[in-house]
Amino acid sequence: MTEQRHFTADDARAAGEGIGIGFELKVVTIVLLGGVSIFGGVGTILGVALAAFVYAGLHSVLLLSSSFNDNDFQVVSGGLLILSVLVPNLPSFVQRARELSRRHRARARAGAVERVT
Questions:
Q1: Cβ contact 25:74 at 8 Å
Q2: How far is CA 4 from CA 10, 57, 106, in A?
Q3: Best label site of 37, 38, 67, 99, fewest CB within 10 Å?
Q4: Euclidean distance between CA atoms 31 and 116, whole angstroms
């Protein structure tokens, strides 16, 4: 009689518990550069794949120059992360600033009218 054996992930020994440690900054940067909203619900796999290629290309080009090392690229990656959050939200930031400015001017006019009367 033959014994049936089931293949499990433990048999493959392909996944370890610490395999993704240290990649968090890279992954979040690539996903946000790919157009995925930090608030969810928006984004495509194609955008993320293109962002991954651009990120890898930028990483390779900067590391080929003699003045950049992997630690310096983490600073570049952090800058890209900040830009990928700020740029898509810039129109709403400008709109909120204008709205607050209008409210401030309206309050100043109302205060000036009260002082006159």
A1: yes
A2: 17, 47, 80
A3: 67
A4: 56
